[in-house]
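Annotated sample (chain length 155).
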Amino acid sequence: MKNKNQSNPKEKITTQNSQNQKSLIWLGVVLLAIAGFIWWYNAYQNSGSTTTPIVAGTTSSNVKMVNGKQEISIIAWNGYNPRVSIAKAGVATTIKIQWKNAYGCESAVTIPSLKYAKNLDANGSDSVEVEPQKAWTTMEGLCGMWMYRFQIKFE
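Output written by the structure step:
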């Protein structure tokens, strides 16, 4: 005769499998929510138009000629703005990077092709001198974690 306090081993295994399945379902839901958030965040980051379409031979609004040199202004705040700049090829250039309340990884900027890397305070600025670039050259800048990017296209 079986004691009522003793449980059937098959029932115990079934209960454990059921709990494992519930745990896996919750894990899947959490991972799906995280993936959805990452997708949404990246879509939000890239939704701020890079630059308006530009006619060949013109430059972006953040590119100015000053004393025969081209100045490109990049603002580091919640990433880099603008994300894409169009500049003239064959002209000496200065990239001016300004941090505005940049407390994230964008306060550490790297431009690999120039071997430039700098960490600045949340509200600092720096200038980078660039030799004239060939047409159709693209220069890329990245944050310290390589999450945020900006490009300068020389045309």
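Annotation: Strands lie at 63-66, 69-76, 80-81, 84-87, 93-99, 108-111, 116-119, 125-130, 137-143, 149-154.
Annotation: The first helix runs from residue 9 to 47.
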